[in-house]
Amino acid sequence: MGTIIEFRNITKRFGPVVAVDDVSLTINEGEFFALLGPSGCGKTTLLRMLAGFELPTRGQIFIDGKDISRAPPNRRPVNMVFQSYAVFPHLSVLKNIEYGLRMDGVPAAERRARAEAALSLVQLEGYGERMPDQLSGGQRQRVALARAVVKRPRVLLLDEPLSALDAKLREELRFEMSALQDKLGITFVMVTHDQDEALVLATRCAVMNKGSLMQVATPADLYEFPASRLVADFIGSVNLFAGNVRSEEANHAIIDLPELGISAWLDHGTGTSETVQLWLALRPEKVELMKRGTTDRPPVMEGTPPGYNVAAGTILDIAYLGSESVYDIRLDGPETGKEGKRIRVIRPNLTRWDQEDFTWDEPVWIGWHAEAAHILQQ
Amino acid sequence: MANELDWHRNKSGFAALLGPPLGWFLLFFAVPMAVVWAYSFGTNSGIADIEISGTFANYARALEPLYLGILGKSLAFAALATLICLIVAFPVALAISFAPPQLKTWLLIGVMLPFWTNLLIRTYALIAILRDEGLLNMALTSAFGWAGVGPLAIMNSNMAVMIGLVYVHLPFMVLPLYAALDRLDRSLIEAALDLGAGHVRAIFTIVVPLAVPGILSGLLLTFIPVLGSYLAPDLLGGPDSQMIANVIERQFKRANDWPFGAALAFLLMYLTLFGIAAQAMMQRKRPVD
Asked: Among B188, B194, B200, B288, which would you mutate to test the A interface (most chain A Cβ atoms within 10 Å of its Cβ)?
């Protein structure tokens, strides 16, 4: 599992626009690596520089230790699946897949055999004589995939590979792509703006914004330990509360949250001083919802560990999504009579009838465990 | 009443809009064509009188070896000029379609600019360049005169006619090619490069096949006006450079044989219509993409 790709201080300018700004990144052999970010963040430019369609303004790109920064596209051990699939409309499915082998001068018999094998790899046996306009979107995507992997590249590049498909098909193909990568053992580098796609498919992700890398980590680390508010907000949804440290002990810290009018327990130290601006990040599914009734006294629940945090609020809205429900709650806040912060809570619908039956405008308690929150400094 | 403008309710009202252009078309195109067509079946019965006798003698004469030879040569000239236009125009159209957007407009204007200049003036300008003491020969002798490269006798030859035909008709080829190439999905070319093709192979295996509809309409759009060219052979050519249009012109003017001229003109017309029909049939046979 050595390094296969290395970007070294890559900068790309288009006139006055800096599309990629001094990015250094290594990708390991066999990884399914995702470049994730909003549109215009530079992820596609980075991929196109890897394919050879753009040349870096500054910096170098290495594949297998060889500097390929300025090599033409046809001299690189990479192949690409295009966003539009770019299946040649005047060639049959089989001829499309054979195209790359024909360019490499592979003899006709071997060409045919390898193309047929690639066709069955993407489960399109018997479609070889079809023309692209006789295929569905999903089938065209498979042809593009087969056409790229038939050349046995060192790295397969995927530019928003599933974005043109409908939701159901997209989900199906996600699992197929994962299986395909396992089977081939080729390093995959994918560009996507769809965080779900990145989380499901990738073994490691780089989150980009405005041409720079924000964080490079596994999907689980990106979700549970985001490095910044930007990453936390881009991957999934998050509740953010500004605050600062009130007291810090060896094994826990207490954070003042003026927007909520409470101090929260954290199960670890922050390593910062009281004057540093912090943000408490709380994922919606890690917040619990409890009945409040008419009392204003926080509930003392049996088995509640020390450091359980509670705040009062009112349900503003409920979105029923089948498998779960999303609650939009307005917290009471520090000053009575003034509108407080809003928080989003997700509860799985574990039974067919909600026993507690939360409803609109109902006063509730929200609560979270000391280890549920994550502290961000930027 | 607003309803008067509603074409769902007032179909005949809108149909009336067709009237004036249809009348114009009938009066100034269909009627003259019909007259000339009738002439082609007539005989001269005086200096200025033509009797429509229903004879096929004019067509029989038009199919004599002398005229068939000129027609054949015109077809060959037109075919060669069209082919040269294709070879010259393809790289030009490709370059324009890949140019940055601001430059694209200027390049297209550059291609069309000669269109806005009178054909006669353009042809005379070519004479100034091609004649024995012309610009081309002046440049040639001053650059390579020491090596014995003397003035070339291009004027009044088939070569001069060919240069003229290609020059005049190049835009007819560039524009449809450009339209076809500009529509081409760029990622198809990138895919070809990505799959191991060099630029030249990508052009011949992907760009050219996908530009076939544009190439066909360019060929047709160029071939038809070249076949009927009159000025280039008349002004640039020698005695053996006559094309069919020059012969037709002579019948109407100097020979004063309108019936025969009409037969020749309609022979050319039948050929052209046949070509267009064949192209349309071929287009219909190709699968829609």
From this structure: B194
